[in-house]
Amino acid sequence: MLEKVKTILPILLKWFFICVLIGFFSGSASAFFLVSLEWVTQIREHHNWIVWLLPMGGLLIGLGYHYYGTSVVKGNNLLLEEYDKPQKVIPLKMAPFVLIGTLITHLFGGSAGREGTAVQMGGAIADQFKIIFNLENTDRRALIVMGISAGFASVFGTPLAGAIFAIEVLYCSKIDFKSIILSFAVAFMAHFTVEFWAVKHTHYSIPTIPNINGTILLWIVLASIFFGFAAMLFSRTTHFWGRLFSKNIKYPPLRPFIGGTILALAIYFFNVHKFVGLGVPVIVDAFSNPSENYDFLLKILFTGFTLGCGFKGGEVTPLFFVGATLGSALSLIIPLPIALLAGMGFVAVFSGATHTPIACTAMGMELFGFESGLYIALACCIAYLFSGSVGIYSSQNSKGAKHKLYQRFKRANLKHL
Fold this sequence. Notes:
Layout: H1 2-46, H2 54-68, H3 76-84, H4 94-108, H5 115-127, H6 129-132, H7 140-156, H8 159-168, H9 177-196, H10 214-248, H11 254-270, H12 280-286, H13 295-308, H14 316-330, H15 338-354, H16 357-368, H17 373-385, H18 401-415
Helix pairs in contact: 1-4, 1-5, 1-7, 1-9, 2-4, 2-11, 3-7, 4-5, 5-7, 7-8, 7-9, 8-9, 8-16, 10-13, 10-14, 10-15, 10-17, 12-14, 13-14, 14-15, 15-16, 15-17, 16-17
């Protein structure tokens, strides 16, 4: 027994030390990113003319990735691919590339999120420990899980959801027990690191939670189906613009330049500033005031176009925007509290677009309180089922129950042709 302890203890200490380092460095990177993001957002909001520099910002991003960042241009999809089939360590330059690219996108008025940036920085930082500690290739999967977990948890202030998200987004592949433990450990470490740097997160609340009954359950199902369709539209719109630009503009740096020009003209002539950047003020307002019934559609359009033409940033905060404003607008026809519908949509659309209903349920309870847990869980699961088989991450292998359901549906339809 003593011999086993002597053998296992150094391994446990090594991985604990790795967790602390990844959590600290990823959390610190996210803290710096959040502060920088707030800074560039304030600059943009106080100088609306800066939107005219969006084409040049896009060209700068495009040139940087085309000539120096081709090995990391896949972003989140590179993390998923390396987890599924480990080949070589993710270049550390992924972190500064996506950080600078995202800040440029937000500074000049692109519509994008932030989780992709934090996840990529976390993944790139974590994967370097394979070299530092001379780890086996089999341990790289655990490192990638830890990087995703640390990045997500630290940027949103939701360590439980971050830990589960890292596992669930990769659930189609084999997840070992060690990865689960490490994912939770590093998520909390990264979260507390951001708190250590005194960086604040946006807080939301659902003040009224009605008692559930049969009628309310039917309304929940109806709203959640809408959330699932919105998630499907978001995913397919983003992929559509990406394919369109890739097919028609062969020189990659020109894609964000041309896209940025179109965005700048649209933002200026149609005065749609509330759909650029993260849109956090609009999300917060959706919890107390009904949103316009077209807000979620315009956010889908602007975000899909921004990311599809080559600008950098995440998709999750725009998904929050889409879900919260859709839920808020539905409050005009669905007799449920506006904050509850906005909160349900906030996480349910995210659930459908990323195939992560468990992580999104955890996030909802972390953000809105455990009292709303049943509503959040139902919304996330139903939206997940109605969001289609294609998510925002093209390299995500959806091989779960929903995928099998769609495969059976396709086979059944083919037999009748």
